[in-house]
């Protein structure tokens, strides 16, 4: 049996083939990751919507900032009635409603919601909450004194 020592050229060729294999695997992984990132970015609105729905279903709550309330002005009462139609139980409704503005501490919101639901004639009353970012310091001090924390 004879053993022939590989030449320097053969060693370099073997090393080149090994590095090429690793390089092609790395390139494939990199391309796959890039494609996944491009898909995620392009599908972001849809994925966000699905994520919000899943979060709501699992926790029974909503993601802050996902819903919005618009305050609109109208030149006439008739224009407001025309704009204010809404869809409920398969029909367009145009019932008149009276807007109530209730001010309370954030810690008391759930109690207010429960109270409204117990007395409100609608099966699904509109109750929305907006945190106060800034305001009259004296008014907020008064509210702290007037509304108990219990």
Tell me the number of helical segments per DSSP (H or I, 4 or more residues long). Answer: 5
The radius of gyration computed from the alpha-carbon positions, rounded to a whole number of angstroms, is 32 Å
Mean pLDDT: 78
For the sheet with most strands, the description reads: 2 strands, antiparallel
Strands in their spatial order, largest beta sheet: 1-2
- Which ranges are low-confidence, i.e. pLDDT below 50, for 5 or more consecutive residues? none
Secondary-structure-based class equals mainly alpha
Strand content: under 5%
Globally, the shape reads elongated
The arrangement of helices and strands along the chain is HHHEEHH
Total beta-strand segments: 2
Portion of residues within helices: 40-55%
Distance between the termini: 94 Å
Describe how the helices and strands are arranged.
Layout: H1 8-42, H2 44-59, H3 77-83, E1 86-88, E2 91-93, H4 109-119, H5 137-146
Features:
53% helix; two-stranded antiparallel ribbon; mainly alpha; 4% strand; single chain
Characterize this entry briefly.
With 150 residues, this protein is mostly helical.
